[in-house]
Design brief:
About 5% of the residues have low confidence. This protein has about 100 residues and is an all-alpha fold. The protein has one domain. It is globular, with a radius of gyration of 13 Å. The chain has seven helices and no strands. Helix 1 packs parallel to helix 4 and helix 5 runs antiparallel to helix 6.
Length: about 100
């Protein structure tokens, strides 16, 4: 039940256009999401996988809904020169990594 609520919150966050209101997110979930962003930036697939598992949110949900510093997870990894985690998150989200890399 908790996972469904978390997934619903992430999906609702994606669908809402306009300003993000982070104060509506549970602090525990926010902490987990920040740790996932930090893991993505570290360029360690192990750290990313561990952070995702600890959050209790599915990797596909995170890869499609998480925003780190205004970027989706794949672009955030590429901007921070984290090629390994960019490929990992691209595979989880179904994004064409090579096409995204060519646009940057």
């Amino acid at each position: 039940m908790k996972k469904i609520i978390i997934a619903s919150l992430l999906t609702a966050g994606i669908l809402l256009a306009g300003s993000a209101q982070a104060n509506n997110i549970d602090k525990n979930i926010e902490t987990h999401l920040v740790k996932i962003c930090e893991a993505i930036k570290s360029d360690s697939k192990l750290k990313v996988n561990r952070a995702i598992k600890r959050s209790g949110i599915k990797a596909r949900t995170i890869s499609q809904g998480l925003v780190c510093n205004g970027y989706d997870p794949v672009t955030f990894a590429l901007v921070n020169k984290a090629q390994n985690t960019a490929k990992f998150m691209a595979r989880k989200s179904g994004v064409n990594y090579e096409a995204l890399l060519a646009k940057l």
